[in-house]
Amino acid sequence: MTERIGKQADFGFRRVPLAAKQAMVDGVFDSVAKRYDLMNDLMSGGLHRAWKDALVTAVNPPPPTGRSGRLDPKPRPGRLHDKGDRAFALLDVAGGTGDVAFRVVQAGGPGTKATVADINTQMLAVGRARAAAQGLDHAVRFIEGNAEALPLPDRSFDAVTIAFGIRNVPRVNMALAEAHRVLRFGGRFLCLEFSSVDVPGLDALYDLYSFNVIPALGKAVTGDAEAYRYLVESIRKFPKPAVFAETMRAAGFRRVSHQPLTGGLVAIHSGWRL
Ligand SMILES: C[S@@+](CC[C@H](N)C(=O)[O-])C[C@H]1O[C@@H](n2cnc3c(N)ncnc32)[C@H](O)[C@@H]1O
Asked: What pLDDT digit, counting tens, does each position of 62-85 carry?
């Protein structure tokens, strides 16, 4: 007798029922939410800040002078067909504690607004507290929502970002289709994610560091080594850039490209709604 196996998904190196993955991911972020930002700094030696800054540069929000009536020489998402003076709207999917959204509104000035959408209540609570502490709550709103079914209207954002989030989503194709749906024509999707290290020697060192140091550090700081083992394993399971590019094209994105950073440790994947 053959046993019927339903749809499966990767949860780190384990295969789990697709329907079970989200709850397992939620458990990881429930467990680490309060120490999430500290761990990012410790694990990456602060590098995640530079990667997020590179993402913000690619988002290219209008600078504070951009709304003063002067012509802005640089093309930017959402400005292809838009001559109006409305706010530049960013959606940061799986935005967690708000890091990317804060950076974009700070770079963009008063004409830039950001929405953080995340499925995890604990991560959002930390994000809301950080926004208030930084005086950014007027420019950043936090909503609870699943990347696979965003509770947001069609064509309502100039740019959509997702940083270190996509590999946690069970149905990546649905999340990409949703990002495409909520983008305005001429809008840009940018995904910052761990990638494939392509510098000889660095890959072995990276393996040693990630499989040994990161779970131990996770245990010391958050009390949860397993959450950080999942992080390391899920990075290894993430598809190579060419494969991910195909998934992006299938979701409707055009002019798909990627930019490796730090020897391929991470990459920024880009696509446009045209
Ligand atoms: C590694 S954190 C990244 C947080 C933030 N983007 C950053 O770079 O600091 C991954 C986030 O993805 C969120 N997430 C996981 N599955 C999700 C889903 N289906 N929809 C929306 N958010 C999700 C988690 O709750 C978590 O906040």
From this structure: 987 644 434 444 546 655 434 456
